[in-house]
Write a structure and sequence with these properties.
Elements: H1 2-16, H2 18-26, H3 29-47, E1 53-57, H4 63-79, E2 85-89, H5 97-103, E3 108-109, H6 112-124, H7 158-170, E4 179-183, H8 188-194, H9 213-221, E5 225-228, E6 244-245, H10 255-264, E7 267-270, H11 277-281, E8 286-291, E9 304-308, E10 310-313, H12 322-327, H13 336-341, E11 344-347, H14 351-366, H15 375-385, E12 405-406, H16 408-413
């Protein structure tokens, strides 16, 4: 009679720890670290009588999460006046070692083998929830609108400022000359990181760097330097303009300058990919183009200006309106096949649409943008239609208050899109 109960107990334990068992199998060093972690657990348990200690990880495998998740964790901690002592570790090799070095100035980061087993234990039992140093609830999404109300947690040291200025000089950028960074997503970087793993499910977010030439050279003709960012890119940028710098392809890229350039740019242009988290955490303005899906557009900051890809119905070749995008449930499709299943094709913004958006951003920052009477109404209509109360699969909000703007020129030229 006892066997069924024993069987149920074994099944319960296996189901309860299946994730942790899988992690241990893939990281066998944890078996050796567990005895040490038990000692650490005992020490922390005793110290909890005097100070509040928590353990957690910093997501370090992708630059977007490494920068944005961590900054928002710090913003959230300050906003809630938390008095915990948080101990962190990197669960994966940092994707940017300079970023890791800088974060260690502001966080207590201990060896992986010391904290990883403890973290697995604390995440397995609800009774240890108070021991977990959790990230910001929204991950890399500022659902509490903290970035516009706070200052960056990262500051460069004197020596780092000197390194950054030397790096700018090597790129040919004169002292205090304004420059704009642009990053355009293609699939090469992820293919190189994950090798044979299929990452084509996000190819709907890619676009062609050459489509940005009109915008880039328009900005360069206005006197800005324009720097094309990227760790690995499929093709060089076809421009001979003296103020256009293909940093991603010219052999001068460094992990430090990836951070410094994003921190000091006049504004950034992005297709919503990992690097844009750098200007984001330094509170630099960002112009997002070719966003897909529309429903996860970053809406939380007044420093964001954006337009999304066109959604074309395969059934009749007609462009979907904003309302139709959400009523047909394609506004939150996150993988390529979901668009195909719903008979929707994504079409990139035209070079002219991209130019109009980045010129609007430059004009706004220079204080010369010519607003028209209908602009306020168009923005209001956009915000009314946008599903600001949307949640992800885990029930977590995707948006806070909507402070960003949709491209004014785009809305003026596409009045029917808001119908």
């Amino acid at each position: 009679m006892k066997k069924p109960y024993l069987s149920k107990l074994v099944n319960f334990i296996c189901n309860k720890f299946v994730k942790e068992i899988r992690i241990i199998k893939s990281e066998p060093i944890l078996l050796l670290a567990f005895p040490v972690s038990l000692i650490s657990f005992s020490i922390i348990f005793i110290l909890q009588l005097f100070v509040k200690i928590r353990v957690g990880f910093i997501r370090s495998d992708r630059l977007g999460h490494f920068a944005a998740n961590t900054e928002l964790y710090l913003c959230n901690r300050d906003n809630r006046n938390l008095d915990f002592i948080d101990l962190h570790y990197f669960p994966r090799k940092p994707c940017n070692h300079e970023m890791a070095r800088i974060w260690k100035r502001y966080l207590i980061v201990l060896p992986y083998f010391l904290l990883r087993p403890l973290d697995l234990i604390f995440r397995s039992f609800n009774c240890f929830f108070s021991y977990r140093a959790v990230e910001a609830i929204g991950g890399d999404r500022d659902i509490d609108n903290l970035l516009d109300r706070t200052s960056p947690h990262i500051n460069f040291t004197f020596n780092e400022e000197m390194r950054g200025k030397e790096g700018l000089a090597r790129l040919g950028i004169k002292d205090n000359a304004p420059y704009i960074c642009i990053t355009v997503r293609d699939s090469l970087y992820l293919n190189m990181i994950y090798g044979e793993m299929n990452v084509t499910y996000h190819n709907h977010r890619d676009s062609n760097i050459q489509d940005y030439l009109l915008a880039i050279e328009t900005l360069a003709n206005r006197g800005y330097y324009v720097i094309r960012m990227g760790a690995e890119v499929r093709e060089p940028l076809n421009s001979s303009h003296p103020r256009v710098i293909d940093y991603a392809s010219n052999g001068m890229r460094t992990e430090f300058m990836d951070i410094y350039l994003g921190a000091k740019c006049f504004f950034a242009i992005s297709t919503a990919t990992g690097w844009d988290a750098i200007p984001l955490i330094f509170r630099r303005p960002i112009a997002f183009v070719n966003v897909a899906p529309l429903g996860i557009l970053f809406t939380f900051s007044s420093k964001i200006l954006a337009i999304a890809k066109h959604h074309i119905s395969k059934l009749d070749g007609r462009e979907l309106t904003m309302r139709e995008i959400f009523s047909r449930n394609v506004g939150f499709c996150t993988v390529k096949y979901e668009f195909n299943d719903k008979d929707v094709e994504l079409v990139d913004n035209t070079p002219e649409e991209i130019r109009d958006l980045v010129v609007e951003m430059a004009d706004r920052l220079e204080g010369v943008f010519q607003s028209k009477p209908e602009d306020k109404k168009l923005q209001s209509t956009f915000r009314k239609i946008f599903p600001k109360n949307a949640k992800d699969a885990n029930g977590i909000r995707l948006h806070g208050k909507i402070y960003s703007r949709y491209g004014s020129i785009f809305l003026r030229n596409n009045l029917s899109w808001l119908q």
